[in-house]
Amino acid sequence: MKTLQAGDKAPQFSLQNQDDKTVSLTDFSGKKVLVYFYPKAMTPGCTVQAQGLRDVNEELKAKNVVVLGVSPDAVKRLPKFIEKENLNFTLLSDEDHAVADAFGVWGPKKFMGKEYDGIHRQTFLIDENGVIEHVFNKFKTKEHHTVVLDYLNS
Fold first, then answer.
1. Are the CB atoms for 121 and 108 separated by under 8 Å?
2. Are strands 65-71 and 90-93 parallel, antiparallel or unpaired?
3. In this structure, is the dihedral angle defined by the CA atoms of residues 47, 33, 29 and 104, taken in order, positive or negative?
4. Residue 131 neighbours by CB under 8 Å, 6+ apart
5. Which residue among 18, 113, 122, 129 has its CA within the 20 to 30 Å range from the CA of 9?
6. How far is CA 88 from its chain centroid?
7. In terms of pTM, does the model score above 0.90?
8. pLDDT digits (tens, 9 = 90+) for 20-70
9. Catalytic residue among 4, 15, 46, 60, which?
């Protein structure tokens, strides 16, 4: 698993969103894109992380930042998560984890002594030219939105 770093060109991708419509990175030309990878919709940590981004989304928009959440969840699971948590940003389904692989966030994990492959919770800020500006990989889920805003405000 080789995770992309600041300065790397972001991989181009197209995935289905919560409305089963295709969303591509190129759709956001001229904007910064916050691509955050999360393991599974409607789980405690992922819910707290999404709620935080929901609560600061207007501030992010004011800074020309669009939020895209990416998980290996099926498309049909995403509208439930959006509705339940009143999310105000796009969620994308990466069921075959091809995009997670391209960013280098799919790999071996351990939980309760079991090893399995899954998404490593990381966030990439992609600049207006499609280059990774910053990688957020050290944060608690409940502080994720604060860490992102602190970086944008610095």
1. no
2. parallel
3. negative
4. 7, 8, 9, 10
5. 18
6. 14
7. yes
8. 999 999 999 999 999 999 999 999 999 999 999 999 999 999 999 999 999
9. 46
